[in-house]
Amino acid sequence: MELGGTCDSRFDAVRGAFENNFDPERAIADVGASVAVTIEGELVVDLWGGTVDTDAANTGNDTGAPWQADTIVNVWSNTKTVSALALLMLADQNEIDLYAPVAKVWPEFAVNDKSGVLVRHVMAHSAGLPTWDPPIDPEELYDWDKATGVLAAMTPWWEPGTASGYHALTQGYLEGELVRRVTGQTIGEFVRAEITGPLGVDFHIGTPDEHHHRIGHVIPPREPFVPPADPTSIAFRAIGGVKLEAEQANTAPWRRAEIPAAGGHGNARSLAQIHAPMACGGTLRGVKLLSPTGADPVFDEQWNWTDQVFGIPMRHGIGFGLPSEFVPLPNPRSCFWGGWGGSITVIDIDARMTFSYVMNRMAGGTLGDDRGMGLLLATYGALLGAG
After folding, report:
1. What is the distance between the alpha carbons of residues 309 and 221, in angstroms, rounded to a whole number?
2. pLDDT, tens digit, 9 for 90 and up, residues 70-122
3. Number of domains in the chain
4. How wide is the angle at C-alpha 323 spanned by C-alphas 319 and 327, nearest 5°?
5. Which domain holds residue 281?
6. What is the secondary structure of 215-278 as a DSSP string?
7. Which residues face 215 on adjacent strands?
8. Cα distance from N-terminal residue to C-terminal residue, the chain
9. Cα 58 from chain centroid?
């Protein structure tokens, strides 16, 4: 397998693991993907390989074209890491209080027992709004006022802060509206002006048409989706709030729309570089995103028990997942999130390291698979060996 990019010799094991991800004998082999690692803000791994599509994708746009240095792809819930960073920046600037009610800046939100929903609840999937009720059509995700209006009128499904239930898409609309209320900018505009523009990073929440030609096509999971067995459960009901299919990500309206929990487009390099300031005291190459303590709220544990949508133990800080028995990251000041189909991003402040892996071929489920995990294990193996 011929790869593009660069890899410091200390991380040869990461290169080897990445090459192995393309082995056609694997249960889930990569088609096109990228992986990146920064240490002290410097890229030590920046690799890509494969193709932007395949005949198996059935997208109608199959070319077999190689994945290039500037190929980007829909990163699904890895977008949440960038949206969370936007809120952390505003909190660090005293523009928003993470521990205050959402209604403090969004007064209409207070109706129907939501006056007690705090910003931190939104960022930790504990606001009680895991989907839209009543349901909305997938195309209504492109109508910001409609999507946020339904959320503003909802009654929470549980007392905010007392449980966690994955807010797969709604978290982004809630966070995005908070950004809009505080700054007057959409979250895509804020990210462009305050994060990706200053850093010179190729990541988009709301991707302009001029970039669409270099977007890798999402290849949906081969495994059929099996809904939860209990139709009265929160997990089952959460699915019904908007019936999103993975193929929707291959359409121009999805790419153009600001979908801050699932519609970001970038690659492993861009995600690793966006979060490098978090790992390095708030500043990267002279660009200050956070104060030296600006990332501290991430590690204020909000939930450490079974998530009502995932059905597994989850440990949430503010905006990110935290190390746990289920996700045993070696350093305590580490945080992470993943994307539907297998992508993953990790920020390790103790190691001053960021890691990201994104791909176009999706595995089933939302909890990752051994492609990203193998790369992350190889990264930590290299770090520990070098230390």
Report:
1. 20
2. 999 999 999 999 999 999 999 999 999 999 999 999 999 999 999 999 999 99
3. 1
4. 110
5. 4-386
6. EEPPB--SSPP---S-TTSHHHHHHTT----GGGGGSHHHHHS--TTTBEEE-HHHHHHHHHHH
7. 72
8. 30
9. 25
Contact 64, 216 (CB under 8 A): no
24 burial type by CB count under 10 A (0-12 exposed, 13-18 middle, 19+ buried)? exposed
Dist CA 375 CA 357 (whole Å): 8
* Helix/strand/coil (H/E/C) assignment for every residue in 33-82: EEEEEEECCEEEEEEEEEECCCHHHCCCCCCCCECCCCCEEECECCHHHH
Q: Are 244 and 140 a contacting pair, CB within 8 Å?
A: no
Cβ neighbors of 382 (< 8 A, separation 6 or more) are: 10, 11, 12, 13, 14
Give strand pairing partners of 287: 284
| CATH code, 306 | 3.40.710.10
DSSP annotation of 172 reads: H
305 SS3 class = strand
Encode pLDDT of 320-379 as tens digits: 999 999 899 999 999 999 999 999 999 999 999 999 999 999 998 666 789 999 999 999
CB–CB of 123/84 below 8 Å? yes
358: enclosing H helix or E strand? strand 353-359
Task: Look up residue 145 and give its two tokens.
Answer: 């006022």
Choose among 355, 46, 70, 49: nearest CA to 207.
70
Label residues 143-175 b or e (16+ Cβ within 10 Å = b).
ebeebbebbbebebbbebbebbbbbbbbbbbbb
The one-letter code for the residue type at 221 is P
Token pair in block for residue 304: 């450490």
Token pair listed for 83 = 């949206």
CB-count exposure of residue 141 (10 Å: 0-12, 13-18, 19+) = buried
Q: Of the candidates 356, 371, 360, which has an alpha carbon nearest to the alpha carbon of residue 250?
A: 360
